[in-house]
Design goal:
Layout: E1 2-10, E2 13-21, E3 26-30, H1 37-45, E4 52-57, E5 60-64, E6 69-70, E7 78-81, H2 93-98, H3 109-116, H4 131-143, E8 149-153, H5 161-177, E9 182-186, H6 189-195, E10 198-203, E11 206-212, H7 213-217, E12 232-243, E13 248-253, E14 256-261, E15 270-276, E16 280-283, E17 294-306, E18 309-316, E19 319-325, H8 327-333, E20 340-345, E21 349-350
Parallel strand pairs: 3-9, 3-10, 7-8, 8-9
Antiparallel strand pairs: 1-2, 1-4, 4-5, 5-6, 10-11, 12-13, 12-15, 13-14, 15-21, 16-20, 17-18, 17-20, 18-19
Helix pairs in contact: 4-5
Length: 352
């Protein structure tokens, strides 16, 4: 568990935090340049010293301004992966990985190398590696120090699209297979969508939202960040049943379900889905003899005008689903908060 209760001023920028972050999974730190993302992880790592407040990791105090406590970075047991890999150019990959390796990690070396897919790189120098390969080595080096927390400061920012696609699956595997919490700084919605368990949105040094990905993504805080054509909902669901004859899988959403093309995941496994607001239409009565397989009973929580369209926030079993309709449809159906209706979902995509 990471306890953050501090304030830090650098020039005209002030960063103020009072949050407790989980001891597992990936927490994404999201915001525009200058929002305070890098300042936050620099304070956690010990690269900067907040003027007020306290930082503690798993009950161990890292910084306490009032009591004069400020552990140096090397004593904090925190791994840090920068935008640029910062590998030692004169060491081969094997040497870079073993530099600073904790004694208790020696038995984990081969497993971690395999997990990152860098077995074939061990005897190569950093200068011969691609950007994605360098970042995988940098992540491995950080993990071999046996950290209690891993900080990643926009590790994909300097990579082109093919290299980003190359590295994302490795980050997903790490999140599943190692028991080390990660703070992942990014301004990329796509990276957050595929990696994050929780999201913290920073704006001008203040926390605007913090919580599970699906809750923050569905909140009004995220709407300014999503292009109009990408307004969507993220929902956590579980595999309910497989229909072999039609090659379809049912996903449980509260006491209702959604059908998608057959998945390989076993029953009861959880995953996240994404539904575009433009793929949701609304009707007042359950349709008869329709080709749309997914019709969900929902309650209108809110609706508002947005550049000639109407964004409708629906509540389904405690989850948020967004729909985009025309003002004409809104008026004709008398859609307003509190109304019960049916949402027809035309398309569902799997995110993680």
């Amino acid at each position: 568990m990471l306890e953050l209760n501090f304030s830090q001023t650098q020039g005209t920028h002030c960063l103020t935090l009072n949050e407790t972050l989980p001891a597992s999974g990936i927490t994404a730190i999201f915001g525009v340049s200058g929002a305070g993302k890098t300042s936050l992880i620099n304070a956690i790592s010990g690269l900067t010293r907040p003027q007020k407040g306290r930082i503690a990791l798993n009950g161990r105090v890292l910084h306490d301004a009032e009591n004069g406590i400020c552990l140096t970075p090397e004593k904090r047991r925190i791994g840090y992966v920068f935008q640029d890999a910062r590998l030692f150019p004169h060491y081969k990959v094997r040497g870079n990985l073993r530099y600073g390796m904790a004694k208790n990690m020696a038995g984990q070396f081969d497993k971690l190398v395999s997990l990152l897919g860098i077995e074939a790189l061990l005897d190569r120098l950093p200068g011969s590696l691609s950007g994605g390969e360098k970042q995988r080595v940098a992540i491995g080096r950080a993990l071999l120090t046996a950290p209690e927390l891993l900080l990643l400061d926009e590790p994909l920012a300097s990579l082109d699209i093919p290299r980003k696609r190359e590295l994302l699956p490795y980050l997903q595997r790490l999140a599943r297979e190692i028991n080390i919490p990660m703070l992942y700084v990014s301004h990329s919605l796509d990276e957050i969508l595929h990696l994050a368990d929780k999201v913290m949105v920073l704006e001008d040094g203040q926390v605007k939202a913090f919580g599970p990905l699906e809750e923050v993504w569905g909140s009004s805080v995220m709407h300014p960040w999503l292009p109009k054509e990408q307004q969507s909902s993220i929902l956590k669901v579980s595999v309910l049943e497989h229909h072999p004859h039609y090659a379809m899988t049912a996903l449980a959403l509260g006491d209702q379900h959604l059908w998608v093309n057959k998945l390989s995941q076993p029953l009861q496994s959880t995953l996240r889905i994404r539904i575009q607001a433009s793929d949701v239409s609304l009707v007042l009565q359950p349709p008869q003899q329709t080709s749309i397989r997914n019709v969900l009973r929902a309650k209108v929580a809110n609706c508002y005008d947005d550049n000639g369209q109407v964004e409708v926030q629906l509540e389904i079993g405690g989850r948020t689903l967004w729909a985009r309709i025309s003002p004409w449809a809104r008026d004709e159906l008398s859609i307003k908060p509190g109304l019960w209706l049916y949402a027809q979902v035309k398309s569902v995509s799997i995110t993680a």
